[in-house]
Design goal:
It is a single chain. The chain is an alpha+beta fold. It is built from 2 helices and 8 strands. A hairpin with a 2-residue loop joins strand 1 and strand 2.
Length: 172
């Protein structure tokens, strides 16, 4: 019987030819980086828009809640007083009494408006920036609108309407 001798293939014959200078070219590297940037952009832009919309919606809900809280406390005569809300571009302050005495006053409840949302327009009867609700009726002499908008992107706004009856609603 004859023994068969196994023949081994060289690296060249097996298709594993390696060159010492083989690696990534600058063009391949730039293509990979471009694809990564493109995919990241496609993912990040909708996420940022979603986040901004969430901030806007949360801000609207916070402002509606503080207005409802002020009216509710007034109608229930909590502390034998009336309550109101003062607005500036980045802050809504629930206060006790018929006059806003300033930010940081003891007993005030401050609601911060988170960036990128801002209270862009405060248009109330009498030209002030405070809404005060009347005891027993819940009405207000400071009816008007508050516009909340995003300050860093395409114009997105929500308008809160306060009627003279003290009813607060969101314009659709």
């Amino acid at each position: 019987m004859r023994k068969l001798k196994a023949k081994s293939l060289s690296d060249d014959e097996a298709g594993y030819k390696l060159k010492a200078d083989q690696g990534f070219t600058i063009l391949e590297f730039l293509v990979v980086i471009s694809i990564i940037v493109l995919v990241a952009t496609i993912i990040i832009i909708p996420f940022k828009q979603f986040r901004d919309n969430q901030v806007l919606d949360n801000t609207v809900n916070d402002v509606l809640a503080v207005l409802a809280d002020a009216r509710g406390k007034t109608l229930s005569s909590e502390g034998d007083s009336q309550y109101g809300v003062n607005f500036v571009s980045d802050l809504a302050t629930l206060f006790k009494g018929d006059t806003f005495l300033g930010a940081g006053t003891l007993g005030n409840e401050e609601i911060e408006i988170n960036y990128p949302a801002t209270l862009s327009t405060i248009s109330l009867t009498g030209g002030g920036s405070s809404i005060v609700f009347e005891r027993l009726t819940g009405t207000t002499a400071n009816s008007g609108t508050i516009v909340i908008s995003l300050s860093n992107s395409e114009p997105q706004t929500r308008t809160i309407i306060i009627s003279s009856a003290g009813v607060v609603s969101l314009e659709l």
